[in-house]
């Protein structure tokens, strides 16, 4: 796969729509001088604005359709663990995730992953990821566990923030409701037991929840929030 195809694959996987991709390339300075968001998008599409790759709408939509077709054509998720028979270095993010994969698949644990790092365009991003949900719906997880791709926040994760463009988004998942209207931070409500997970490092994370900070190579900041779900008898 050439570099251009790899970039298009990453962009198509990261952004839900072509407009989301264009918005990610628009800075606050662009909006200040242009005073027109639609004009700013058009300039990005033409290659006159934006700090990343120039991707045509038809290329994005064709790749997006191909990814969605591949996802929908898959049958039930494989029973085999992505991390099965693989060995990871102690202290690596993949080692921590491998230790949690089976419990998240079985619904005994719902782990929230906070990651802060740079995307493929060198922009610093951060966000909270519903690990169990990603295991079910993300067709790149096998490549991530094989070390061929990096796990990074996407715009359709629980939260996403681009520090360069100041673009933010909150999206609830099947496991968690995002509560984003309470300053100074956000909260996550587990939809099964309705317990609140608080990611604020200055307070306890909540009932049945533990916080694990990871110092690992390849990421600026990683924190895991493991919530044990108690099923009703």
The portion of residues forming beta strands comes to 15-25%
Strand order of the largest sheet: 4-3-2-1-9-8
Measure the end-to-end span: 50 Å
Radius of gyration: 19 Å
**Low-confidence segments, ≥5 residues, pLDDT <50?**
none
What does this entry look like structurally?
Helix content is 34%, strand content 21%. It is built from eight helices and nine strands. A six-stranded antiparallel β-sheet has the order 4-3-2-1-9-8. Helix 1 crosses helix 5. 28% of the residues are buried.
Topology overview:
Elements: H1 3-14, H2 18-24, H3 28-34, H4 37-46, H5 57-73, H6 93-106, E1 109-118, E2 124-130, H7 131-137, H8 141-145, E3 159-162, E4 167-170, E5 176-179, E6 187-190, E7 196-197, E8 209-214, E9 221-228
What descriptive keywords fit this protein?
8 helices, 233 residues, alpha+beta, 6-stranded antiparallel beta sheet, 9 strands, 3-stranded antiparallel beta sheet
């Amino acid at each position: 796969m050439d570099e251009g195809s790899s970039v298009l694959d990453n962009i198509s996987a990261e952004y839900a729509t072509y407009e989301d991709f264009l918005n990610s390339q628009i800075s606050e300075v662009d909006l200040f001088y242009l005073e027109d968001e639609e004009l700013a998008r058009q300039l990005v599409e033409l290659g006159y604005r934006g700090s990343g790759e120039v991707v045509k709408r038809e290329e994005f939509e064709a790749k997006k359709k191909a990814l969605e077709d591949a996802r929908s054509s898959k049958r039930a998720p494989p029973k085999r663990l992505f991390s099965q028979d693989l060995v990871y270095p102690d202290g690596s993010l993949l080692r921590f995730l491998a230790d949690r994969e089976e419990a998240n698949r079985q619904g005994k644990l719902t782990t929230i992953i906070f990651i802060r790092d740079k995307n493929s365009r060198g922009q610093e991003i951060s966000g909270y990821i519903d690990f169990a949900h990603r295991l079910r719906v993300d067709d790149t997880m096998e490549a991530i566990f094989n070390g061929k791709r990096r796990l990074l926040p996407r715009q359709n994760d629980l939260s996403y923030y681009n520090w360069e463009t100041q673009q933010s988004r909150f999206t609830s998942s099947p496991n968690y409701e995002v509560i984003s209207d309470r300053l100074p931070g956000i909260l996550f409500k587990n939809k099964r037991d309705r317990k609140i997970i608080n990611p604020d490092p200055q307070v306890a994370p909540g009932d049945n929840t533990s916080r694990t900070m990871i110092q690992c190579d390849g990421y600026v900041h990683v924190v895991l929030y493991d919530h044990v779900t108690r099923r009703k008898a």
